[in-house]
Design goal:
Layout lengths: L11 H33 L2 H38 L2 H28 L1 H7 L4 H15 L2 H17 L3 H24 L3 H26 L15 H32 L4 H17 L1 H19 L3 H28 L1 H6 L5 H14 L1 H18 L3 H26 L4 H4 L2 H22 L1 H6 L8
Length: about 450
């Protein structure tokens, strides 16, 4: 199997857009089939089951964010070696990545199973839903190794220049998950346990199918036992790049959970309005997150190939490509926030509470476009320590304290509470832009410092 896309050649605008579209579609599928569990349980089970799955998915989303952050290290390293045209280094990186994430999957499974009750207690799970939430999380814990495997394979493919195959794999998983939900919940009457089993079975099937498919396509790495070898140097490189990305993903996820937990104390109307806004956040920010993921691969290959001007131009093309989508959601929230809220609830109290929140928090749709794109660019260059520190600072030193102050000083003013996210993102965008500009001036020095990974 030849390299699907050489991201160092051809029309750059077309490369960015064509490579990013499968990311966007894959993220959309994941968002929809992630909601399928909750919808099916809502149709065929009681409100306790709905609360259990809602809480349980928050736990699994944190784990998934941690894993996807770690596996992005594979994308960066494989992309860097692909840019340098070093196939043997790519094979070593893939073999090490798969071994490493298999071990991580087993470890996370054990820890999630053991500490499930404590985690659910921290999330203030309703007592009547606690046992069902425990069932859901512990069954999902058994499939963490599949999440690791799927994400590791997808990460190396994207680094190698193939963003379409991961889309195929997630589509298969999504379809099977929905079918499994209906069969196990409606017909087998397995309730919460059934939807969790459908989730891990679909992910496991997708992972195995991916390996079979790639072997038949003569991928650069053959999935055979003798090829699964741990290289200590590669493992160190993967950890050095991947762990900071994983931490930043977790910090972002935790800051959103904190907003949910704090606003829960402000009453049903306010809590519901913020919850509805969080649903729109996912879709409004999908183009920006997809562009960021695409930029990590594109920049990694071009950095490895020492095509610095091309990777710098890719950043601005990515921002311009995602901007219309972010602007469309922003304008919708400014012009008709009541229609956005009304799609989920017709309750006048929720609509009234949500209008000022939507109008202020929607500025974040514009601000995060720049933050995400620049972080993707920096991750592709291996500057993951900076992005980790930036995200941790934004979440722990800015976002969470400001949310706490706004909710306690002005609990009846959701409009002010909604300004926290865009204000923090704006600050992050400014200092990240300063860092990016400094790196551009130092690119010659970066190139001299060493080839490929040694220069990261």
């Amino acid at each position: 199997m030849k390299q699907e896309h050489d991201l160092t050649e051809g029309n750059l605008a077309r490369t960015v857009v064509v490579f990013a579209i499968p990311f966007l579609l894959a993220n959309l599928i994941q968002a929809f089939y992630g909601a399928a569990d909750l919808m099916v349980v809502g149709w065929y089970c009681g409100k306790e089951a709905v609360a259990a799955v809602s809480t349980g998915t928050q736990v699994t989303q944190i784990i998934t964010s941690m894993i996807t952050g770690l596996t992005l290290g594979s994308t960066v390293l494989v992309g860097n070696y692909a840019g340098q045209k070093k196939p043997e280094e790519i094979k070593k990186t893939i073999g090490t990545s798969l071994c490493l994430f298999a071990a991580v999957g087993v470890l996370l499974s054990v820890l999630l199973w053991m500490f499930c009750p404590q985690i659910l207690t921290l999330l203030q799970t309703p007592p009547e839903a606690f046992d069902l939430a425990k069932q859901y999380v512990q069954v999902c814990a058994c499939g963490v190794v599949f999440i690791c495997g799927y994400n590791a394979i997808s990460a190396v493919l994207r680094g190698y220049g193939d963003s379409r195959s991961p889309l195929l794999f997630v589509a298969v998983a999504g379809f099977l998950n929905i079918i499994g939900d209906i069969v196990l919940v409606r017909y087998a009457h397995m309730g919460v346990r059934g939807t969790a089993l459908a989730t891990i079975a679909s992910q496991g099937f997708s992972m195995v199918s991916a390996m079979v498919y790639l072997n038949r396509k003569n991928f650069i790495f053959q999935f055979r036992p003798e090829n699964f070898r741990m290289d200590r140097r590669k493992a160190g490189e993967l950890a050095r790049v991947g762990i900071p990305i994983s931490l930043q993903e977790c910090m972002v996820r935790l800051s959103f959970l904190y907003l949910t937990s704090v606003t829960n104390a402000l009453g049903v109307a306010s809590s519901s309005a913020v919850g509805i806004a969080s649903k729109y956040d996912v879709f409004a920010m999908l183009p920006a997150t997809s562009i960021a993921s695409a930029l990590a691969s594109i920049v990694a290959q071009n950095y490895g190939a020492r095509k610095y001007d091309r990777m710098n131009r890719a950043l601005w093309i990515g921002i311009l490509a995602a901007a219309p989508f972010s602007l469309a959601f922003f304008l919708w929230a400014q012009i008709s926030p009541q229609s956005m809220i009304g799609a989920f609830s017709k309750d006048p109290a929720i609509i009234q509470a949500g209008i000022p929140f939507f109008r202020t928090c929607s500025f974040d749709y514009l601000a995060v476009l720049f933050v995400f794109a620049m972080n993707g660019y920096l991750n592709g260059r291996g500057k993951t320590i900076f992005t980790m520190i930036s995200c941790c600072f934004g979440a722990l030193a800015l976002r969470m304290p400001l949310i706490y102050l706004a909710c306690h000083l002005l609990p009846d003013n959701l409009g002010v509470i909604g300004t926290v996210a865009p204000s923090v993102s704006g600050i992050m965008a400014v200092y990240t832009a300063v860092y990016v500009m400094r790196l551009r001036k130092e690119r010659e020095a970066d190139g001299i410092s060493g080839q490929g990974v040694s220069g990261l």
